[in-house]
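(Deposited chain)
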Amino acid sequence: MLTLSGLREAIRQHVLGALPRPEAAYRPEVAEYARLLRDYPERGGKMLRGALLCYTGLAYGAGLERLLPVAAALELFQNWVLIHDDIEDASDERRGKPALHKLYGVPLALNAGDALHARMWAMLIEAEAPREVLREFARLVELTAQGQHLEMTWVERQRFDLTEADYLEMCSQKAAYYTAVAPLRLGALVAGAQPPAVFEQAGTKLGLGFQIIDDVLNLAGEREKYGKEIAGDLWEGKRTLILLHFLRQAEPPERDRAEALLRLPREEKPASEVGWLHRRLLETGAVAYAQEVAEGMLGEGLEALRPVLARLPDSEAAEAALGLLESLVRREA
């Protein structure tokens, strides 16, 4: 069985091999088009979702040659969604470099995301993926879009009446499903098995933990390791578990001050006020609270998955999948 680093590289090469090469372009504009499509994939990334899919499929007994194209398609999904997400959030950075729309403008970046989306489906068709795999991809695209809609409308419509349950609902659709649920289910489906219900139940908890830790790192991580703008969630006004917990606990003057800041568009937010809110989220224990919630979800998810994965034919691959899931929360980037 491949090591995690070897598996990541195999998935990465499969992704890049499916994309156009600038040197093969017949005119300069088409060479630029190829560079845009390859930009985010060439920046690297942890390939966590694709690797989890492969280890799960291997645990069921599927061959790596059947799993790699589907894992690569899942990583392409991740890349085109990130391009669109960066545009929608007006993000400045991605994987330690300027976001694609900052380099090329919104129209060209949006077009590149659309092209990667099409390439994702083409990879699945060319691999003759089973109908159940195609259905799973359609479901994860729809759920991710619905969750993104929830998050964007909350910011655009100045919603401050949200609860932590609202956040968890949104996050389970936008991030948790494609982070953990879909890779687990797809691994089983490629192997010709029916995914057990626990894959969705436990996978949702693990995916939620991953996203909550991402929110934590946005405020408490190291910029070099994190690879994105520190405190970007505050500049973008995102309703994270951290923010909602703080607002619920804050005294009226601080809550009013925070809401006044968050109502402003990014370009009008004073850096001093963003810095104040950043500090208060750390000082009041809101960040630590979110970290604790994430670790609790990790424990619950792993406990539910262990006995199910332990019964699969390839125990070594099953253990690798569990280790990868544990790293979703215990991470620094």
